[in-house]
Amino acid sequence: MKEILEHLLRRLIQIKSVSENIPELTRIVDFVEEELKGVGDIFSRRYLVNNKPSIFYSFYNTYHPKILFVGHLDVVNGRDEDFIPRREGDLLYGRGSIDMKGSCAVMIELIKALSREEEKPNVGFLFTTDEEVGSENGVKYLVEKEGIGGEFVIIPDGGEDFQLVTEGKGVFHVKIVARGVATHGSRVFLGENALDKLVQIYTELKSHFHPEPCGDPEHWHNTINLGKIVGGDSVNRVPDYGEMYLDIRFVYPFTVKKIEELVKGIVSKYEGVEYELISTGETVFTPQDNPYLIKYKRIAEEVLNRKLSFSKEHGATDGRFFSERGMPVLITAPRGGNIHGNDEWVDLNSLEALFNIFFRFVKEK
To answer: Fewer CB within 10 Å of terminal CB in the chain, N or C?
Structure first.
């Protein structure tokens, strides 16, 4: 199986499916469709949302199977040589090898293997092409508008070396706009500084978050980042307009609603200030006593012959779109490194192990 996965992954890496390259995104979904053309007794549907293609497979005629595997075929940009796979020992180098064409290769081969079984499992597979740019036209649309989901969702795109990620922070991106009254910088008493309002709002907001260093090695708490502030056109002029962009990450049991209430409560104190939500996403939270999760952990530990730990993810993942609708999510990944960097790699032995874990998990009653 290792050689089969390597051969498939090499071909996937060679397709430059950068998130903005629509022809190559189409080409890679065409490739998956062609690769699985000979699989019988499987339901499939292809989607195209704002030029971003996706494809869904299920052995049952349902959009909500018991187990749903989710993968993305798009990658971040890289050097030309990053799209030429090379092997050194058991490591395969190339753009997307760990993020996450390696896992997608496992999913494709898993479909083939399960199709040869006499009794077909109630399992589905979703491949999208816009995860690297927010998943707006992929997972988000397909979950919200098409009803795709599962009793248990597995996303092999996070954590390190088979860690079991069961919690992920929610995201709250907001733009705050302040308006004031312009005047000469020597006569500030005649004007109203828009940037002053933004600074005061940020200071008050920040008081609701843990200061760093916080003493928690995992830093598992809500955070706020002032990512961008814009305003003013001259050092000697009081600015009458300003914008501030905030990136707030929050942990369970906080929700988007609770964070918005905090922002709204502070912004409303200032005249001439309003806010606009850019993007939001709820937390990922799967209880560790979930029966599917217990079963997966046991099988994975048996295949790997070692204990696995539960982990948490600070960044936003596609898991948020399922979790906010009450679907338990597991995020995990094979062994790899240099994600989004030069010489990205994946361990081929770990891809084979991931395949064996997935196959046993799906087949075992």
So the answer is: C
Specify the pTM: 0.90
Sorted by sequence, the CB contacts under 8 Å of residue 152 that are 6+ apart come out as 66, 67, 68, 290, 292, 293, 327, 328, 330
Residue 234 near residue 183, CB atoms below 8 Å: no
CA angle 360, 131, 151 (to 5 degrees): 40
- Which pLDDT value is given to residue 315? 86
**Contacts of 189 by beta carbon, 8 Å cutoff, 6+ apart:** none
Q: What is the pLDDT of residue 38?
A: 87
The CA dihedral of 296, 302, 306, 307, to the nearest 10 degrees, is 40
Question: How is the chain split into domains, by residue range?
Answer: 1-168+284-363, 170-281
For the domain bounded by 1-168+284-363, which CATH number is listed?
3.40.630.10
Most distant CA atoms of the chain, gap in Å: 83
What is the fold, at CATH topology level, of the domain defined by 170-281? Alpha-Beta Plaits (3.30.70)
The pLDDT of residue 316 is 83
